[in-house]
Amino acid sequence: MATPAFDPSALTRRGVLTAAACTLLLAACGRDERRDGSGSRADGPQEIVLGASLELTGRGAALGVLQERALHIAREALSPDGVPVGNLRRTVRLDIRDNASDPRLAARQAAELAGSEQVHVLVGGTLTEVSMAMVAVAEEHRIPFVSLAPGDGIVSPATDRTYVYKLTPDATDVAWRLGRLIDTQRARRVVLLAEAGLHGDSGVRAVPEALRAAGVDLLRTVRLPASGASFTRAAERAVAGEPDGVVVWGTAPDSGAAARALRRAGHDGPIFFDAGAVVEDTLAGRNAEAVEGAFAVHPISLAGSTLTNTTTAALARRDFVFRYIQRHGGFSGFAPYAADALRLVVDAARFAGSVDRGRLRAYLQSQVTEGIAGSYAFTPIRHGGMERDSLGEYTVNRGSWVRIS
Predict the structure, then answer these.
(1) Of all helices (H) and strands (E), which one includes residue 94?
(2) Buried b vs exposed e over 29-39: b needs ≥16 C-beta within 10 Å?
(3) What would the DSSP string read from start to end of 125-157?
(4) What DSSP character marks residue 41?
(5) How far apart are CA 180 and CA 399, in angstroms?
(6) Leucine-binding protein domain location, by residue (predicted)?
């Protein structure tokens, strides 16, 4: 049986533990006995089935539509003959549903998908509340769930999230990089403007400590109202006292709306975004003037310069970006998460020689890999695998994200 590719030069703070766990799992792995994920003999089509609940409409559509596109592109890039899983070759099938950005609908869809023996893994939730609604379903049905949303609570506490994995970077890592970026821009007094909800909560917890470590004063924290409400009052509170900069911790479309409100309130200093802002919507149309010159921390998938490398991961990234632009006319750095989710699942099935849900879970939590969005290093005690070294610093220059570090 094939063993996972492992590059010792790519070891990170979690790489050693992950490599050891992976080695033990591989040693214990047996051959697939031509059975499906339920343990019965596989007499039907030989498939790996991903059940996806995505925000294709509603507030999260700016993020969810990107993931649907990425899933289709990543599946089409696989061999048409399927991937080797034990003694079989299995094709990948996607069962994608629109949760309309509604956590309750997402939970119902997840339960329907998980209740089918033909579905092996759940993927989805670009909004934190939507992913959190799917977490309980995944644990109850003991089916692996790969979340595409920010929010550290998705995978913690680890003892209650044994089947749940998160691909987006941790809030503490993003905040740490933001603190360093703010320091380099000589902003000494800043305000945190955090969106309502669970993602905003993560920023409220992570940013103060990161700013202290960077020697930056946090003047105050202001929370945005729920999406769709006026941000005017929150923006006016944020700019009171003329801070050197404002950290906007939120996902699109709130990010662009917050930037416009800050400019209307008189803030002419820098705006610093977390990774949730980096989609086309933030730079588009009425947001363009307000966000010009703004900064963001985001995984390396946003930077075109990384595509000139010739490593296997860089070539895969280049191929994905080419396919995405060819089909959709532009590229968003947030898009690759779902493509990485599919690749992680396929690799887990290949290494395990099975699509049994329990075995997929075991191999998902032992993967060290370079994806399209960035590097991942899962361990049994940590299921949020995006590495801090995968993050870069960017600025908006003439309507485009440009990497500065």
Answers:
(1) strand 88-98
(2) beebeeebbee
(3) -SSHHHHHHHHHHHHHHT--EEE-S--GGGG-S
(4) B
(5) 24
(6) 48-384
Q: Is residue 185 helix, strand or coil?
A: coil
Give the number of other CB atoms < 10 A from CB of residue 314: 16
Taking alpha carbons only, the member of 357, 368, 371 closest to residue 145 is: 357
Residue 2 forms part of a structural domain: no
> Domain limits at 156?
8-169+307-390
Q: How far apart are CA 281 and CA 132, in angstroms?
A: 24
Tokens of 395: 């600025």
pTM given for the model: 0.86
Strands 400-403 and 391-397: antiparallel
Taking the C-alpha atoms of residue 130 and residue 134, their distance in angstroms, rounded to an integer, is 7
Residue-wise pLDDT for 324-343, tens only, equals 889 988 776 777 899 999 99
| Alpha carbons 339 and 343: distance in angstroms, whole number | 6
Residue 199's CATH number:
3.40.50.2300
Structure tokens at 171: 């809030």
In order, the DSSP letters of 216-234 are -EEEEEEE--STTS--HHH
Q: Is residue 1 part of a domain?
A: no
Q: Which residues contact residue 236 at a Cβ distance below 8 angstroms, ignoring those fewer than 6 apart?
A: 265
**Alpha helices for 250-377 (secondary structure H):** 254-264, 280-283, 288-291, 312-328, 336-352, 357-364
187 and 163, same structural domain?
no
Please write the tens of the pLDDT for every residue from 195-246: 999 999 999 999 999 999 999 999 999 999 987 789 999 999 999 999 999 9
